[in-house]
Amino acid sequence: MSTNSNLPNRQSIRLKNYDYTQEGSYFITLVSQDRLHLFGKIVDGKMILNSVGKIVEEEWRKTIELRSNITLGEYIIMPDHMHMIITIHSQVKSISAEEWIHSNPKSPSHTIGAIIRGFKGASTKKINLFLNRTGELPFAPTTELPFAQKDLPFAPTSEFYKNKIFQRNYYEHIIRNQADYNRIEQYIIDNPINWKRKKG
Question: Within a domain: residue 102?
Fold first, then answer.
């Protein structure tokens, strides 16, 4: 992900006193482990999902079935990351994050953190089951990763993926108004087109 001057700076640390159960829209970015291209590739400005990418998309769409108080906005799965907009429509527990942590170490099921954890966990589990069953890998050494290259940063085996599909943390931005929402939505839509330029 390269920096975009049209977007607010994304932070990976939750705001200390912000109530992540309250109504509003959130821009979320998840990144693959070690930024590997696990989910597919860009061809002519379009994202082509591989089998792993399709599982990720399927699990993301299921998120709305599990939680009635959220709407999934624009999203895009890229080779090594995923952008999405989530809107929460009703409050579950109107207290600050700090108060909730002191009163109960487990986050409520409808917070942004819980939604992302559930999605990542379900995706990782299903991907590992798929890889173990089929032996299919989401990548193969190509011109970017030739067999002749001796110092590969990973070994292309199914063992690599266990619990390592996504990086542990995620980036979030609280969408403040409609103009902010529209700008981020367009950024997500344009991501595949801008991929080649970003990679330079």
Answer: no
pLDDT, tens digit (0-9, with 9 covering 90-100), for 157-166: 444 455 579 9
Contact call for residues 9 and 48 (beta carbons, < 8 A)? no
Instruction: Print the domain residue range for 54.
Output: 24-90+115-141+155-187
- For residue 132, being part of any structural domain is answered with yes
| Nearest alpha carbon to residue 147 among 137, 156, 138 | 156
Asked whether residue 72 is assigned to any structural domain, the reply reads yes
Residue 69 lies in a domain: yes
How does pLDDT run across 56-97, given as a tens digit for each residue? Answer: 999 999 988 888 788 999 999 999 999 999 998 865 444 444
Per residue in 120-174, pLDDT tens?
A: 999 999 998 888 777 666 654 443 443 333 343 344 444 445 557 999 889 999 9
* Strand ranges in the chain using DSSP code E only, listed in sequence order: 24-31, 40-43, 46-49, 70-77, 81-88, 171-175
CATH number at residue 159: 3.30.70.1290
Tell me the CB-side half-sphere exposure of residue 192, using CA atoms within 13 A. 17
Supply the pTM of this predicted model: 0.71
**Structural domain count, the chain:** 1
Distance between CA atoms of residues 31 and 166, nearest Å: 6
